[in-house]
Amino acid sequence: MSKKVVAESPLQRNSLASLDQKLAMAKRCSHEGVVAGAKAAVLATIATAIPTMASARMLPWARANLNHTAQALIISTVAGAAYFIVADKTVLATARKNSFKRPISNIEA
Protein backbone atom coordinates (compact mmCIF):
# COMPACT_ATOMS: atom_id res chain seq x y z
CA MET A 1 0.00 0.00 0.00
CA SER A 2 1.20 3.48 -0.75
CA LYS A 3 1.01 6.34 1.66
CA LYS A 4 -0.95 9.42 0.71
CA VAL A 5 1.06 12.61 0.72
CA VAL A 6 -1.04 15.51 1.91
CA ALA A 7 0.39 19.00 1.81
CA GLU A 8 -0.33 21.09 4.87
CA SER A 9 -1.77 24.52 4.41
CA PRO A 10 -0.12 27.47 6.20
CA LEU A 11 -3.17 27.66 8.47
CA GLN A 12 -2.74 24.03 9.55
CA ARG A 13 0.98 24.55 10.17
CA ASN A 14 0.16 27.63 12.23
CA SER A 15 -2.42 25.80 14.31
CA LEU A 16 0.06 22.98 15.01
CA ALA A 17 2.76 25.48 15.95
CA SER A 18 0.26 27.31 18.11
CA LEU A 19 -0.69 24.06 19.82
CA ASP A 20 2.98 23.27 20.45
CA GLN A 21 3.47 26.74 21.93
CA LYS A 22 0.44 26.32 24.17
CA LEU A 23 1.64 22.93 25.37
CA ALA A 24 5.12 24.27 26.08
CA MET A 25 3.66 27.23 27.98
CA ALA A 26 1.38 24.94 30.00
CA LYS A 27 4.33 22.71 30.88
CA ARG A 28 6.36 25.73 31.99
CA CYS A 29 3.46 27.09 34.06
CA SER A 30 2.98 23.77 35.83
CA HIS A 31 6.72 23.44 36.46
CA GLU A 32 6.81 26.90 38.05
CA GLY A 33 3.86 25.87 40.21
CA VAL A 34 5.61 22.69 41.35
CA VAL A 35 8.78 24.55 42.29
CA ALA A 36 6.91 27.27 44.17
CA GLY A 37 4.73 24.68 45.92
CA ALA A 38 7.75 22.65 47.00
CA LYS A 39 9.43 25.73 48.46
CA ALA A 40 6.24 26.61 50.34
CA ALA A 41 5.92 23.06 51.65
CA VAL A 42 9.48 23.11 53.01
CA LEU A 43 8.90 26.43 54.76
CA ALA A 44 5.55 25.28 56.14
CA THR A 45 7.11 22.07 57.44
CA ILE A 46 9.78 23.96 59.33
CA ALA A 47 7.35 26.58 60.59
CA THR A 48 4.96 23.91 61.85
CA ALA A 49 7.39 21.31 63.14
CA ILE A 50 9.17 23.57 65.60
CA PRO A 51 6.13 24.72 67.60
CA THR A 52 4.38 21.34 67.35
CA MET A 53 7.33 19.40 68.71
CA ALA A 54 8.14 22.04 71.31
CA SER A 55 4.57 22.10 72.61
CA ALA A 56 4.47 18.29 72.73
CA ARG A 57 7.45 18.39 75.07
CA MET A 58 6.52 21.40 77.22
CA LEU A 59 2.74 21.58 77.56
CA PRO A 60 1.09 18.96 79.76
CA TRP A 61 -2.03 18.68 77.59
CA ALA A 62 0.00 18.27 74.39
CA ARG A 63 2.31 15.74 76.05
CA ALA A 64 -0.70 13.66 77.08
CA ASN A 65 -2.66 13.91 73.82
CA LEU A 66 -0.23 14.36 70.92
CA ASN A 67 1.69 11.18 70.21
CA HIS A 68 4.25 10.94 67.39
CA THR A 69 1.59 10.02 64.84
CA ALA A 70 -0.52 13.07 65.70
CA GLN A 71 2.50 15.35 65.47
CA ALA A 72 3.44 13.92 62.06
CA LEU A 73 -0.15 14.29 60.88
CA ILE A 74 -0.27 17.95 61.90
CA ILE A 75 3.02 18.74 60.19
CA SER A 76 2.29 16.82 56.97
CA THR A 77 -1.21 18.28 56.65
CA VAL A 78 0.11 21.83 56.84
CA ALA A 79 2.91 21.03 54.36
CA GLY A 80 0.49 19.43 51.90
CA ALA A 81 -1.97 22.30 52.14
CA ALA A 82 0.81 24.86 51.60
CA TYR A 83 2.06 22.94 48.55
CA PHE A 84 -1.31 22.75 46.83
CA ILE A 85 -2.40 26.30 47.64
CA VAL A 86 0.85 27.90 46.46
CA ALA A 87 1.17 25.66 43.40
CA ASP A 88 -2.41 26.42 42.33
CA LYS A 89 -2.02 30.16 42.83
CA THR A 90 1.29 30.15 40.93
CA VAL A 91 -0.12 28.23 37.97
CA LEU A 92 -3.16 30.51 37.79
CA ALA A 93 -1.07 33.69 38.07
CA THR A 94 1.33 32.51 35.36
CA ALA A 95 -1.52 31.52 33.05
CA ARG A 96 -3.26 34.84 33.63
CA LYS A 97 -0.05 36.74 32.90
CA ASN A 98 0.53 34.76 29.70
CA SER A 99 -3.06 35.17 28.51
CA PHE A 100 -2.56 38.91 28.08
CA LYS A 101 0.44 38.48 25.78
CA ARG A 102 -0.22 38.91 22.07
CA PRO A 103 -0.16 35.62 20.17
CA ILE A 104 2.64 35.10 17.66
CA SER A 105 1.27 34.74 14.16
CA ASN A 106 3.10 32.82 11.42
CA ILE A 107 0.43 33.23 8.77
CA GLU A 108 1.74 34.88 5.63
CA ALA A 109 -0.51 37.50 4.11
From TrEMBL:
Matches recorded under InterPro entries: Enod93 (IPR005050)
Transmembrane segments: 34-56, 68-87
Keyword Membrane: yes
Coiled coil: none
Keywords associated with the record: Membrane, Transmembrane, Transmembrane helix
Protein name stated in the entry: Early nodulin-93-like
